[in-house]
Amino acid sequence: MTIPPIQWFPGHMAAAMRDLARRLESVDVVVEIRDARLPLTSANPALAQLVGRRAHLLVLAKEDLADSGQTARWVAYFERAGLRALAVRGKEQRSVQRLLRLVVAAAAGRPSARAMVVGIPNVGKSSVINGLLRRAAAKTESRPGVTRDLRWFRLSPGLELMDTPGVLLPKIETAEAQWRLALCGAVPADRFDPEPVIAAFGAWLAGRGAADVPADLAGFAIARGCVGRGGEPDLQRAAQMYLRDFNHGKLGRFTLDEAS
């Protein structure tokens, strides 16, 4: 099945990139959040270019939704490339506190330091910030585009942290990247047809012999009671349920970008 093009770059993202570039002048540490299921695809090279010589921490969030073996290999891969990297679960305090120690260490020697959290939409930035703050200060929802403004939070007397809007690339270059970002929630559900996205994921599963994961949307619809008149499967409603189940981990743990 051919996947119709999937793109999403609203005006607030272009404005956010300009604002980020300006605000970075007063930032000491950049905390880049990526989706652990998409360690490469969820990167925005434009954000990486803004980092410059500042301390750069790479965080693979949503670790509980990714394949644990693949996550360990990706962390090792990034560390070999010279990046300080770790995987976290945003809602698990013990996991997030490891990141706090890295942020503090990266800012060492400065009596007053500022860190900025960046990443594409819906990779878990706000959940990580709330975990660091130990309170629900940043908005969290299971849809992209919730955070629109840049906000400062104080982590400690000498350390401030900024939450930023998620920013995608102006153009998602490949069909593979498009369906993977859509499947993992980086693109709003109303910006793409879910059926070919799920079909692409089904083909990806088939290539790996994952027979225990539902890959046929019609079968999934019938199993979940998503049927219309005459017992025909309601594919649109089933597709939304499928996407929700995938992003809640009910279908299993998957890393779509596989480390060699």
Features of the shown structure:
260 residues, Rossmann fold, Conserved Hypothetical Protein Ylqf, Chain: A, domain 2, 2 domains, elongated
How is this structure best described in words?
Helix 6 crosses helix 7 (about 195-205) and helix 8 (about 215-225) crosses helix 9. The radius of gyration is 19 Å and the shape is elongated. The mean pLDDT is about 85. The chain is built from nine helices and six strands. With about 260 residues, the protein is α/β, with parallel strands linked by helices. A six-stranded mixed β-sheet has the order 3-2-1-4-6-5, with helices on both faces. It has helices spanning about 10-25, 45-50, 70-80, 95-105, 125-135, 175-185, 195-205, 215-225, 235-245; strands at about 30-35, 55-60, 85, 115-120, 150-155, 160-165. Helix content is about 40%, strand content about 15%.
Brief synopsis:
The chain is α/β, with parallel strands linked by helices.
The CATH architecture of the largest domain comes to 3-Layer(aba) Sandwich
Low-confidence stretches: none
Structural class: alpha/beta
Question: What is the CATH top level name of the largest domain?
Answer: Alpha Beta
Write the layout of secondary structure elements.
Blueprint (H helix, E strand, L loop, with lengths): L10 H13 L5 E7 L9 H7 L3 E7 L6 H13 L3 E4 L5 H14 L6 E6 L6 H9 L17 E6 L2 E5 L11 H9 L10 H13 L10 H7 L11 H13 L13
Parallel strand pairs: 1-2, 1-4, 2-3, 4-6
Antiparallel strand pairs: 5-6
Helix pairs in contact: 6-7, 8-9
